[in-house]
């Protein structure tokens, strides 16, 4: 009999995942990072907040490119990994991003990034409204998430705990594309563009674990504005 995945509270799950998060060959991240770079464009001199920054994979790259970056996360384990990394300076803020308002000044950021987070958010309109509060009037908001179609494959944010060998999942919400679109609109944001990215042959060759999802949508993204 196959052992059922262990479902943990989101924070506890990411604290445990932090040990191996950066070392995994994660096809979703391989798809996502180039899309984020494309959507954000040239970030030199911009003020950017990374909401749900995790181990700092985006925050540190953006800071190295000349952005002034604030990273916000509630996982002590993830932030500990971020602080250990060498690179440009980022201001790290420990805060649960579901508890709004965030301890940050309104309209202080040219770009608001929220990467692979919203599948853990229940109150989407409130959350999207907070992203809008942080963004300057002429700024942009970039949101990425595992494509909801992946849940039809029985997949959500997950990892194999190296201590137990058991599949472990931080608690997620079964949001669908309409929830994200309607949540953004209800949160007072303008939708500039949306997109999705399937697993192609190139990714499957690069990250073998993506092979079983060939031709299936894995990434959903949104570009928004206040």
Quickly list its features.
alpha/beta; 7-stranded mixed sheet; 7 helices; Rossmann fold; 3-stranded mixed sheet; 226 residues; 10 strands; globular; 27% strand
What does this structure look like?
- Helix 5 crosses helix 6.
- The longest helix has 14 residues, at 27-40.
- The strands form 2 sheets. This protein has a 7-stranded mixed beta sheet, sandwiched between helices.
- The chain has helices spanning 10-17, 27-40, 57-64, 76-84, 124-134, 177-186, 201-206; strands spanning 6-8, 47-51, 68-73, 91-94, 109-115, 135-146, 159-160, 167-170, 190-198, 217-225.
- It starts with 5 loop residues before the first strand and ends with a strand.
- The chain has one domain: Rossmann fold (3-Layer(aba) Sandwich).
- It is an alpha/beta fold and 226 residues long.
- It is built from 7 helices and 10 strands.
């Amino acid at each position: 009999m196959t052992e059922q995945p262990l479902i943990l509270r989101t924070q506890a799950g990411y604290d445990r995942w932090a040990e191996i998060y950066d070392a995994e060959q994660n096809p979703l991240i391989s798809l996502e990072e180039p899309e984020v770079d494309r959507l954000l464009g040239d970030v030199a001199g911009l003020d950017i907040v990374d909401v749900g920054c995790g181990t700092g994979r985006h925050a540190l790259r953006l800071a190295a490119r000349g952005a002034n970056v604030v990273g916000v996360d509630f996982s002590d384990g993830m932030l500990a990994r971020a602080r250990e990394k060498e690179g440009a300076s980022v201001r790290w803020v420990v805060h649960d991003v579901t508890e709004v308002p965030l301890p940050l000044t309104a309209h202080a950021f040219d770009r608001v990034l929220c990467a692979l987070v919203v599948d853990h958010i229940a109150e989407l309109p409130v959350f999207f409204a907070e992203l809008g509060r942080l963004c300057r009037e002429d700024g942009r908001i970039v949101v990425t998430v595992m494509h909801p179609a992946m849940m039809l494959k029985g997949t959500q944010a997950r990892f194999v705990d190296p201590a137990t060998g058991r599949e472990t999942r931080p608690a997620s919400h079964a949001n669908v594309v309409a929830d994200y679109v309607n949540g953004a609109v209800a949160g007072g944001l303008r939708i500039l563009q949306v997109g999705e990215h399937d697993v192609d042959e190139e990714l499957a060759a690069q990250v073998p674990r993506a092979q079983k999802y060939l031709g299936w949508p894995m990434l959903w993204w949104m570009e928004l504005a206040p």
